[in-house]
Amino acid sequence: MSSFRPRVLVIAEAANPEWVSVPLVGWSLASALRQRADVHIVTQVRNRDAFLRASLVEDRDFTAIDSEAVAAPLYRLAEVLRMGKGRGWTTVSAIAALSYLYFERLLWQRFGPDIRAGRYDIVHRITPLSPTASSPVAAKVAAAGVPFVLGPLNGGVPWPKGFDAERRREREWLSYVRGVYKLNPQIRRTLDAASLIIAGSRHTASEVPAVFHDKVVWLPENAIDPSRFNLVARQDLSLPLRACFVGRLVPYKGPQILLDAVASFARDGRMVLDIVGDGPMLDELREQAAQLGIDDKVVFHGALPHSQVQEVLSGANLLTFPSIREFGGGVVVEAMALGVVPMVVDYAGPGDLVTDQIGFAIPLGTRAEITAGMTATLERVLKDPSVLTTKAAAARTKVQTEFTWDNKAARIVDLYQCLLERRASI
Questions:
Q1: Enclosing H/E stretch for 361
Q2: Residue 149: which H helix or E strand, with range?
Q3: Whole-model pTM?
Q4: Domain span at residue 129?
Q5: pLDDT (tens digit, 9 = 90+) per residue, 135-175?
Q6: Residue 390 shares a structural domain with residue 254
Q7: What is the spatial distance between Cα 370 and Cα 327, in angstroms, rounded to a whole number?
Q8: How many separate domains does the chain show?
Q9: Residue of 11, 309, 45 lying closest to 133 (CA atoms)
C-alpha cells in the first residue's frame, strides 16, 4: 500500500452499512477510502447510529449533520408525490436534490473554516450519486485552493422505446422532463469547479457537457466487499440448471420477461428459477407462473436480508436479470463475485459490466425481442452447459482484480495524487 495518505473530507450524505442501494455505495466507498487516506466522513444524521454501531467515533471519524428541519418534510412530500412505495424515483431524486442544498449549507458552516485553513487536501462528494444534485460548496472549495472531486455520478438512463407502459406503472412522470436539470446554472458551476468528475456509467459520462470531458474518469459505481460476498457457486452442470433473479418486483426490472423466457425449459424439467425480492408485481408474477404451468419450478423467496442473498444466489448457475433501465447493476457484480454467470440486457450499467468473456448480454429491444433473445441464449446454454465454467471463472477473476471496494479506493487515491501533483506543479 502506498505511503501517500491525503487528508480527505468525504461528503456522503447517504451512507449506511445497514441499508442497500445508494446508502450502501456511499458507506462502502467511504469506508474503503479510510484504509488508504486520512478520511473524515460527513453524513446525514439519520445514519449516525449505524456509524456508531460500525465502531466509528463521532467527531474523530465522522460528523453527522442534522438537516432534518428541511429533509424530513421534503421526504414526506416525496412519499406523497411518488404515488406508491418503490415508485417515482425521478420525483424522489428531484426532491432529495432540494433537501441536499440545505445539508451542504450546514456542512459549509461547520467545515468551511477548516477547508479555507488548508486542513484538507481534497474534498470529495460521493453521495448524492445523482448528476441532477448540484453542490454549491464546490465553488467555495475551489476558491479555497482545494481540489473538489465529484462522483461516482450515475443516473438518468433514458427509458428505452417501447416501454412506456412500464414507465407509467413506475409513476415516472417527471422522467419526461428530466433533461431540464441541465438548465440549472448551479449544475454547470458545480462541474466547472470540480477538479475531477468520476462517472459511474458510460451513459452518465456522455451526459457531462463536452467542455468538461477532460475532467471525466469512468469508474463503474458498484463493487463488492469480499468479506460479505465470500461464497463460490459450485456450477453443477447437471440438469436442471438453476437461474436466479434478484431485485425489486417492478416492471422495469423485467421479472415478467424472465418468466416467459424460461417457461419452456422449466416445463420440460431443464431449468428451475429462484426469484429473490418483493414488490407490487408479486401476486401477478405468481399468477403468471401458474398460467405458464411452471409454478412448481419457480421459488419466490421474497425480500431477504443482504447477508442471505448470496446463499440463494450462489446456488445458481445463472443470474438472469432482464432489467431495461439499470443505472449501476450492483447485483451483477455480486453474482460475478460468486461465480454465477450473468445474463443481462445490453443497456446502461449492466451493459457496461458484462462482456462475452464473463456472461451474456441480450440486445435491447421490445419486450418480445428481449424474451426471444433470452430464450435463444438459454437454449444454447442448455445444449452446452460447459460454457458456464469458463465464464464463471472469468467473472470471479474480473471482480477480484477490478471490482472490490479496495481496488476502487486505490484507483481513486491514485487520482487524488495526480490532482495534487498537478496543482503543485502549477
A1: strand 360-362
A2: strand 148-153
A3: 0.91
A4: 7-223+404-425
A5: 999 999 999 999 999 999 998 777 788 777 777 776 665 56
A6: yes
A7: 18
A8: 2
A9: 11
Q: How far apart are CA 81 and CA 148, in angstroms?
A: 33
Say if 392 falls within a structural domain.
yes
15-30 pLDDT, tens digit per residue, is: 999 998 899 999 999 9
Closest CA to 37 of 414, 425, 418, 419: 414
Give the residue-averaged pLDDT of 248-275: 96
C-alpha cell at 405: 471496494
Q: Are 272 and 244 in contact (CB under 8 A)?
A: no
Element (H, E) at 193: helix 185-193
Do 348 and 326 touch, CB atoms closer than 8 A?
yes
Cα–Cα separations (whole angstroms), residue 228 to 17, 33, 34, 56, 339? 11, 17, 18, 19, 14
The answer to the question of residue 261 being in a domain is yes
Q: Which residue has the cell 475531477?
A: 196
DSSP SS3 for 276: strand
Residues contacting 322, CB < 8 A, separation 6+: 253, 254, 257, 258, 261, 343, 344, 345, 362, 370, 374
| CA dihedral sign, ordered 261, 263, 265, 271 | positive
Instruction: For residue 97, give the amino acid letter.
Output: A
- Dist CA 249 CA 266 (whole Å): 20
280: amino acid identity, one letter: P
What's the start-to-end Cα distance of the chain, in Å? 28
The residue ranking higher by pLDDT, 344 or 178, is 344
Q: Taking Cα atoms as reference points, which of 313, 147, 161, 144 lies closest to residue 245?
A: 313
What are the grid coordinates assigned to 241, written together?
A: 440448471
The β-bridge partners of 18 are: none
Spatial CA neighbour of 233 closest among 330, 338, 333, 104: 338
CATH number at residue 149: 3.40.50.2000
Give the C-alpha separation, 339 to 356, whole Å: 15
Tell me, what DSSP letter sits at residue 98?
Answer: H
The residue among 352, 282, 265 whose CA lies nearest residue 317 is 265
Contact 77, 100 (CB under 8 A): no
Q: Three cell numbers at 395?
A: 467473472
Residue 394 CB-half CA count within 13 A: 15
Per DSSP, the three-state class of 161 is coil
